[in-house]
Amino acid sequence: MAVTAVAPRPAQSHLTLQTLPIGPDTLAIRSQDWDRDRFDIEFALENGTTYNSFLIRGEKVALIDTSHEKFRQLYLDLVQGILNPAEINYLVVSHTEPDHSGLVKDLLELAPQITVVASKVAVQFLEDLVHRPFERQLVKNGDRLDLGKGHVLEFVSAPNLHWPDTILTYDHGTQILYTCDVFGMHYCDDFAWDEHPRLLQSDYKLYYDCLMGPNARSVLSALKRMEALPPIAAIATGHGPLLRHHLTDWVEQYRTWSLEQAKAERMVAVFYLSGYGQAESLAQAIARGILKTGTQAELVDLRLVDAHEVRELMSLAVGVVLGMPPQSGPDAAATQVLLKTLLAATHSKQSFGLFESGGEDDESVYLCRNTLQEIGAKEAFAPILLKQPPSEALLQLCEEAGTDLGQWLTRDRSIQQMKALDADLDRALGRISNGLYIITAQKGQAHSAMLASWVAQASSEPPGITLAVAKDRAIESFMQVGDTFVLNVLQEGNYQSLMRHFLKRFPPGADRFAGVKTYPAANGSPILADALAYLECRVVSRMETSDHWIVYSTLEKGRVSSLDALTAIHHRKVGNHY
Asked: pTM value?
């Protein structure tokens, strides 16, 4: 049997370049990083990776993406060996992640005449990356660029795959779709195409899980836009082999995985206008509250989307939150169109919440509210009005409003989870009894409180306790590492009024201590005057479970008001709720 010897790669060749024609007038430039063993901090690599760039030479010349900065000299020497950089008319930037745009600045220094073609967001990012003036052409979904010789490039907006500025590029002349990260994988070898799918499958799935899976709904939106394109003969990815031999299989796997993930997740679209009033900070606070409930929150800056993208998001969202845009000024014309699009796309099965942005001339929150209520959408929280400057209390109100919205959207899931527990196990678990406590906390002007029973001593030196806090509880934000709070111990025979008070469902931003006698602890949190005892606590660490945070805290001070009294005990019969 004949044996063919393969010469080992010399040590210095761990970075190599491969070029090959992939269509008429079209060249692939693959920067091969053979030894890379980790990408970002997200996942380990077993087979290295590639950074793929493409050159299309019509009557005008376009380069699609560049390479990682570690290939600077190799890549630039190669490009200059293929053509004079002064001949390049356009640089299409699929997105601005450094592994694809790491040499944009270098290329523009060589060829300052190049026009950068990218999404509006990408150009904004590039301005901070390049630090020099450059020609630019902003493109959005459906825009075209004619290079001549039949090479008409059509752009497909694909935000959040996996960066907010991503576009795909379709060449009508070759029927090649350039997708950057989408459909890619970290896999480096000399086979430029997908001839051996079995070798690639595990890396393809790992790449999807780490980078695309968290944005499954955005993947589905991109796939839907791809369906509007003419036939696709090949997909030229930004990492790994190019896809041609098993194209349908690769695309359908993305569809299947994304549908499965999207069905398991609920998403709320939170719209705001950056740079206008306090819209961005309030939107972020609301989104934090939504995320606590296990519901996805997608922050959408009205400066960075078009009407088509708004309609796409509204078709996927189970809820919508809107910060009021301006009625007048330089942004008003564009935001008016988007507002009308949003309202027209809302339907009766969605929940909504509105907040004032605190700009100079907000749209009326009440007019929007009336329109949404006429559609039949359910209001999840009362409009948030800005009657005062931003404060901790206002941000707390926003976060609690987001939590209320998320809890409303997940109510059916919560009931199903309670019913899913085995009946015998449920009853046995319910026989674990605990004391009754009120947790109180204060940060600046914001304060919160919670009735608790899952509390236990956890250490004696230093003295410490653990308590379990549900992820969607408002007080969870007050129990980060380094925060302080008070554990108020309730007294047997004298706890009913306090328990009833703190069991109430408070609206967002409500004063939980109205009508309750308190005095401040040394750490600033309220002590309940009618508590049997109190302990001043400082959070040291947190451990995450499926639905609770286990918070370990050390004790700094404590006192008992009645030495002969006993702690109130909470007896349950089932374990699936408190």
From this structure: 0.60
- What pLDDT, in 10s, does the model give residues 200-222? 998 899 889 888 887 788 888 89
Distance, CA of 22 to CA of 406 (rounded, Å): 48
Look at residue 246 in the predicted model and tell me its pLDDT.
94
| CA-based R_g, the chain, Å | 29
Which segment of 267-271, 302-306, 388-392 scores lowest on mean pLDDT?
A: 388-392
Helix/strand/coil for 550:
strand
Cα distance between residue 525 and residue 444, in whole Å: 10
**Contact present, 222 and 161 (Cβ < 8 Å):** yes
Q: What length is written for the chain?
A: 578
- CA pair distance 483, 47, nearest whole angstrom: 44
Per DSSP, the three-state class of 342 is helix
Q: What 3-state DSSP class applies to 346?
A: coil
Residue 450's DSSP bridge partners are 439
Closest by CA position to 356, among listed 448, 281, 269, 407: 281
pLDDT digits (tens, 9 = 90+) for 79-117: 999 999 999 999 999 988 888 888 999 999 999 999 999
In this structure, are residues 491 and 532 in contact, taking their beta carbons and an 8 Å threshold? yes
Work out the number of other CB atoms within 10 angstroms of the CB of residue 304.
16
Q: Strand, coil or helix: what is 515?
A: coil
DSSP label at 422?
A: -
